[in-house]
Amino acid sequence: MTDIPGIVITGASGRMGQMLIKTVLASDKCRLVAALEREDNQWVGQDVDAMIGGQATGITVTSDAVEAFAKAQAVIDFTAPAATVAFAGLAAQARAVHVIGTTGLSDDDLKAINAAARHAVIVRAGNMSLGVNLLVRLTQKVAAALDEDFDIEVIEAHHNQKVDAPSGTALMLGEAAAKGRGVSLKEVSDSGRDGMTGARKKGDIGFSAIRGGDIVGEHDVLFAAAGERIVLRHLATDRAIFARGALKAALWGQDKSPGEYDMMDVLGI
């Protein structure tokens, strides 16, 4: 038996799932103990590494989350809201660190995840990259320094298969801007403009979403006033940055007390 933490990857056949598997297999700080997929997925029953173009590892993709989580110290989860909520309960029962990169979570989903965090460590973030989390902190500081004469717009771009908008990262940035101004994002959010919307309301935080091609992730925070603009930007060109951040979170959480954390906690910023 090894003391190196065992990791389960959910959504193994997805873009992020495959990247996470490669990242874990390449690491000497952890080991892959299971890869999870839906029962009807063609990957179930197949060797993990063989499915991503490598050599056979002897680890077979499974649909049995209970069995998989029972032998893990951490679960890394970039799936869908309903699946993530179910996984949160199972990970808590297994006392495994649950790293959540899933976006599009509802208020009810977040309540369920918060309840699970009473029993285990949960690290949840709309984006796991160091650069994005630095951008979040900068956005809060700039928003706090500027008054409502500066309109704030969060502009995000992703690949054409992304199913939610605004992105989880865009919402993180919007929350940071709102926090900097001392307001609730729910009360000032302005998204989905179409048709005769009228003039922009002073103090609102706007969102614009672009979907196309294979864009990994691009986020701008625009502060625009009469005669000047400030733009904070982060461009992601490789999903590996998210996988590395998620793995860092899974390892960081190993000695922490039950509770819900984010990447600011992991990075200490």
Automatic annotation (TrEMBL):
Positions contributing to NADP(+) binding: R38
Dihydrodipicolinate reductase C-terminal domain ranges (all copies): 131-267
Catalytic activity: (S)-2,3,4,5-tetrahydrodipicolinate + NADP(+) + H2O = (2S,4S)-4-hydroxy-2,3,4,5-tetrahydrodipicolinate + NADPH + H(+); (S)-2,3,4,5-tetrahydrodipicolinate + NAD(+) + H2O = (2S,4S)-4-hydroxy-2,3,4,5-tetrahydrodipicolinate + NADH + H(+)
Domain of life the protein comes from: Bacteria
Swiss-Prot/TrEMBL keywords: Amino-acid biosynthesis, Cytoplasm, Diaminopimelate biosynthesis, Lysine biosynthesis, NAD, NADP, Oxidoreductase
Keyword set includes Methyltransferase: no
GO biological process, one term: lysine biosynthetic process via diaminopimelate
Compartment(s) of residence: Cytoplasm
InterPro entries in the cross-refs: DapB_C (IPR022663), DapB_N (IPR000846), DapB_N_CS (IPR022664), DHDPR_bac (IPR023940), NAD(P)-bd_dom_sf (IPR036291)
Broad class of the protein's primary localization: cytoplasm
Active site positions: H158 (proton donor/acceptor), K162 (proton donor)
EC number: 1.17.1.8
Top EC category: oxidoreductase
Positions annotated to bind (S)-2,3,4,5-tetrahydrodipicolinate: H159, G168, T169
Domain annotation Dihydrodipicolinate reductase N-terminal: ranges: 7-128
MF terms in GO: 4-hydroxy-tetrahydrodipicolinate reductase; NAD binding; NADP binding; oxidoreductase activity, acting on CH or CH2 groups, NAD or NADP as acceptor
Biological or metabolic pathway of the protein: Amino-acid biosynthesis; L-lysine biosynthesis via DAP pathway; (S)-tetrahydrodipicolinate from L-aspartate: step 4/4
One Pfam short name: DapB_N
Record's GO cellular component terms: cytoplasm
Residues that coordinate or bind NAD(+): G11, A12, S13, G14, R15, M16, E37, G101, T102, T103, A125, G126, N127, M128
Function text: Catalyzes the conversion of 4-hydroxy-tetrahydrodipicolinate (HTPA) to tetrahydrodipicolinate.
NCBIfam families named among the record's database cross-references: dapB
UniProt family annotation: Belongs to the DapB family.
Description of how the protein assembles with itself and partners: Homotetramer.
Protein name: 4-hydroxy-tetrahydrodipicolinate reductase
Source taxonomy: Bacteria, Pseudomonadati, Pseudomonadota, Alphaproteobacteria, Rhodobacterales
Gene: dapB
